[in-house]
Specification:
alpha+beta, Aminopeptidase, 33% helix
Length: 162
């Protein structure tokens, strides 16, 4: 059994969407998935993509994925790599696929001279948290994530507020 991590390519959209839906099911957030294969094609495979994807395969079978993008740290004065999502099929968990995806992401971060790699994890996802800690990742407990979406985002963009 050999794990292969490859950059996603045009034509992988349906597989990536399948992984996104499976991740949403796992996180109990299925009702929030609005992505389509067309959205993914435009975002990941345009002339100037803003997000990127990796596919993990075992014996030519897709078993996981990661979506990432580059951000910027004003304090470091460098880009960072932000891992948006990582998912491994349940039947393949524990085989090193998640670690292999994270290792490839770390390589990509270093290839792009990134100062750090970050991601978020749901606080109840104990298996993932255990993996991240085993790799030396530290929780950023002093930070709180805020989000604007839907009507609140529209209202602020129109010049209004609360």
């Amino acid at each position: 059994m050999s794990i292969v991590i490859r950059q996603a390519k045009r034509g992988d959209e349906a597989q990536i969407l399948s992984f996104i839906r499976a991740l949403a099911d796992y996180e109990k957030l299925s009702d929030e998935v609005a992505a389509t294969s067309d959205h993914l094609r435009q975002t990941l495979f345009s002339a100037h993509p803003k997000a990127f994807a990796l596919i993990a395969e075992i014996d030519d079978e897709p078993v996981g994925f990661a979506i990432y993008f580059f951000n910027f740290s004003t304090f470091l004065g460098k880009h960072g790599l932000y891992l948006e999502d990582l998912y491994v099929r349940e039947a393949r968990r524990g085989a090193g696929v998640g670690k292999a995806l994270l290792a490839r992401l770390a390589q990509i971060a270093l290839e792009h001279d990134c100062g750090r790699m970050e991601w978020s994890v749901l606080d109840w996802n104990a298996p993932s948290i255990a993996l991240y800690k085993s790799l030396g990742a530290n929780p950023m407990d002093e930070w709180t994530v805020y989000r604007l979406k839907g009507e609140a985002l529209d209202k602020l963009a129109a010049g209004g507020g609360a």
